[in-house]
């Protein structure tokens, strides 16, 4: 039996948050069942929000579940990480409501830029993304692939 197709998070999308502070996930990035409350996992980063897909959540789950309960440092780090995380799903229109603090920390006000990253995606403020976009940094896809040894 063939493996089911995986969602590819590619491209860049600009969206305006609606009056209830909800953000629309691009239809190409949605999948059957993503309306469940724990379909995606949002993790705050220094300058954006990282959103993990179910595939990435499973990978992370396996790695962290393998940490020994007696490893106090690992358990403390896991607690710190997930105290700031947020699990969510989409409504029928593909919208998500993210906590105000998560958006505020990422600098997202009324507009957001969603940036694909193959198996996950990121939510940026337009200003912060403009400084990191490869067009602004002058990097070509070839430069990036060489740096990553791909």
Describe the protein.
This protein is α+β, with helices and mostly antiparallel strands and 150 residues long. The chain has one domain (12-125): Transcriptional regulator MraZ domain (Chemotaxis protein chec, 3-Layer(aba) Sandwich). Helix content is 33%, strand content 23%. It is built from six helices and eight strands; from the N terminus they run E-E-E-E-H-H-E-E-H-E-E-H-H-H. The chain has helices at residues 54-65, 72-83, 100-106, 126-132, 134-137, 141-147; strands at residues 12-16, 22-24, 40-44, 49-52, 86-88, 95-97, 111-116, 120-124. Strands 1-7-8-4-3-5 form a six-stranded antiparallel β-sheet. Strand 7 and strand 8 form a beta hairpin. The longest helix is centred in the middle third of the chain and has 12 residues, at 54-65. The chain is globular and about 45 Å long. It starts with 11 loop residues before the first strand and ends with a helix. The model has no long low-confidence stretch (mean pLDDT 89).
Key traits:
two-stranded antiparallel sheet; 8 strands; Chemotaxis protein chec; 6-stranded antiparallel beta sheet; 6 helices; alpha+beta; 150 residues; 33% helix
Number of separate structural domains: 1
Low-confidence blocks of residues? none
**End-to-end Cα distance:** 30 Å
Helix content: 25-40%
What's the CATH H-level homologous superfamily?
A: Transcriptional regulator MraZ domain
